[in-house]
Amino acid sequence: MTTYRLQVNGKQHAVDVDADTPLLYVLRNELALNGAKFGCGLGQCGSCTVLLGDQSVMSCMVPVSGIGARPVRTVEGLGDARTPGVLQQAFIDEQAAQCGYCIAGMIMQATALLEKTPAPTDAQIRAHMSPNLCRCGTHMRILRAVRRAADKLAAGGKR
Amino acid sequence: MDHARRKRHTGWWLLLAAAIVLTGIAFGIMWRPALAPQTAIPSFDEARIERGANLARLGMCASCHTADLARPFAGGKPMETPFGTVHSTNITPDRDTGIGAWSPEAFTRAMRQGVSRDGHLLYPAFPYNHYVRMTQDDVDDLYAYFMTRPPLDAPARANDMTFPFGFRPLVGFWNVLYLDDAPWRPDPGQSAEWNRGAYLADAAAHCAACHTPRTELGGPDLKRQLDGGEAEDWYAPALNKNSPSPLPWTRAQLHAYLRTGMAEDHAVAGGPMQDVVMHLAQADEADVAALAAWTHSHLAQAPARTTPAQTSGPLPPPAPDDPDLPRMRLGHELYTNSCARCHDVGRSPGSGAALPLQKAIALYEPDPRSLIHIVDDGILPPDGEPGRWMPGFKAILSIEQAGALAAYLRKYGAGQPAWPGLDQQVRKARAP
């Protein structure tokens, strides 16, 4: 066990874990941030997507020892039920969840897109979201929610 | 004085004559006439179209000529070359934007000489220097296949060539150097299957287009046939005695690899080879077996050698006296915490485990490009196709980490000398 210092959603944390512990386990088991979900554990489904620096990563694939000084952001950092972030509100407005298991990952994947490409085309949204799977078939609503958030931000909305 | 003047005049006349002759030769090299458009598309019998379909798969035509799966053969796919970006063209039988107006003669001339129906020279990104050796019957089969595809309206996209290569007639000089129109000859000392494979590999499947290195002028380096080339910034391994494979291939493994992209103990197809496999998977099985037989005869020339691929188990930690110890330690840590979780868990290939990395060909190649692409982008099956899957680590590993991992894998996975310029290659692959 080693002590790792992590910055998650702007807060500093120290965790005692093994070097190969995936970031996902640290978030869920050590920090009680349960937004990111364990789906496949192989980097294939995207339900554990979080931001590492300015990049979206599948946190089940990130050993804690490889994080270094890069800040981590999770869906909890975007807002809560009373004050949802733009993407969270857009997902609510479009009712873009059925079982909801993939949604935290979807929202973080979309966050990475809108930070780099504030006015994406529909094709860019599709391509960017393609690593993230939804087994309920809510894809069209998810795409609409990302579109809605992008339009709101383009119209001067606050993230 | 008169004598001297006459002598000077003769000199000028000779120079002028030489200039005229040279201009004539240059004109002959660079100019080709337009061929008359055909008024109607001929009809073809089903068997011919079927054979053409098989040849189109063996030749992987869609790999370049299909940019959008919903619009097969409509072209428009950009290809980066050292001379600029070339866009593939519409080879559906659309009369205005495709090849609907091309007679069999015009199609044959394009396939054999690289000349468009209107007489302009095609860039050798279109491998007519291979198709020139197809039999006329095969060219006719391909013609039948393309002329019976649904016509799609798709005008050619403008190419973006560096000066002076936008001037297409210059390709004529490339043709003088590299277009060998001698017909393909079988080797009577080899089996019929081997000869079938050799013919397909050389002509339709144009294997050497990627697996033979190119000269400065973009032509095949004929002294180094199948000695390893490149495609889309991936290293295309040598298929001759210089094969980097750490273990000898069997014919059955090659057959499985060409057909499915997976060969036990060797590799999962990555990069541009995925497209090749996707096409060969749909081609005639006997033809793929022939290609495997031919490829195997070349790979079998590689001498047997002792490599870490003959061992099993996880890769070792760096030696305590390693001169590059901190970097190698970082690489080993990344290997243990990221790679080994799938690559060295001791499961069989059917249960989600991946190739033990000491067997990975990418570690043994003369440059690190393929390994860097695999680490950064993973291996994703082509759109809509089944296949093995590895996640990419570009967002997870920093440039320093990716470099340390590659350096460690090269030394302690393959036991090979360090790649020169590894860090520049990692940075180049990550450049936006």
Explain what the structure shows.
The complex is a heterodimer of chains A (159) and B (432). By secondary structure, chain A is an alpha+beta fold. Chain A folds into two domains: 2-77, Ubiquitin-like (UB roll) (Roll); 78-154, Orthogonal Bundle (DNA polymerase, domain 1). Chain A has five helices and five strands. Chain A has helices spanning 23-30, 86-93, 103-116, 122-129, 139-154; strands at 2-8, 11-17, 49-52, 55-58, 72-73. In chain A, the strands form two sheets. Chain A has a three-stranded antiparallel beta sheet, covered by helices on one side. A two-stranded antiparallel ribbon of chain A has the order 1-2. The N and C termini of chain A lie far apart (38 Å). The model of chain A has no long low-confidence stretch (mean pLDDT 95). Chain B has a three-stranded antiparallel beta sheet, with no helix packed on it. In chain B, strands 4-5 form a two-stranded antiparallel sheet. The mean pLDDT of chain B is 94. Chain B is globular. Chain B has helices at 2-30, 46-58, 61-65, 104-113, 128-131, 136-147, 171-178, 192-202, 208-211, 251-260, 272-280, 285-299, 325-343, 369-377, 399-413, 422-430; strands at 78-81, 84-87, 160-161, 229-231, 234-236, 262-263, 267-268. Chain B has 16 helices and seven strands. In chain B, strand 4 and strand 5 form a beta hairpin. Chain B has 432 residues and is mainly alpha-helical. Chains A and B meet through strand 4 of A and helix 13 of B.
